[in-house]
Amino acid sequence: MAAPVDLELKKAFAELQAKMIDTQQKVKLADLQVEQLSRMKKHANLTHAEITSLPDTTHMFEGAGRMFILQSKGEITKQLLDKQKTADEKIKELEQKKTYLDRSVKDAEDNIREMLMSRRAQ
């Protein structure tokens, strides 16, 4: 009777280990993406702060590949604000994804603990 229990526990622990490794990789990836988005948001914010101090008649160019396109100050400002808003939304999504991943790992650990407790009670 002990052999089937051991095999079942061994299988459950192997599944948990695989899930933990996968989740840790996903969490690290999400952290890197959040960091990158935060830098992009900060860059857009600093650029916006510098642009607001310039007069409205200033010629501004937007980089597009290996060329520059003449844009109005309002258009550049709008693009920078959109960039910041998009970065905020993506950061929020990634944080929710991280909490979901952490919760799923915790649930798997709790299930294995319950299995161990029920085996000990028998």
TrEMBL record:
Assigned GO CC terms = cytoplasm; prefoldin complex
A molecular function GO annotation:
unfolded protein binding
Keyword DNA-binding attached: no
Checking Pfam families in the record gives: Prefoldin_2
State the coiled-coil residue ranges.
77-111
Keywords, ordered alphabetically: Chaperone, Coiled coil
Can you tell which superkingdom this protein's organism belongs to? Eukaryota
Its job: Binds specifically to cytosolic chaperonin (c-CPN) and transfers target proteins to it. Binds to nascent polypeptide chain and promotes folding in an environment in which there are many competing pathways for nonnative proteins.
Outline the subunit composition: Heterohexamer of two PFD-alpha type and four PFD-beta type subunits.
Q: Which family does the UniProt entry place this protein in? A: Belongs to the prefoldin subunit beta family.
> Which named protein is this?
Prefoldin subunit 1
Origin organism is: Phoxinus phoxinus (Eurasian minnow)
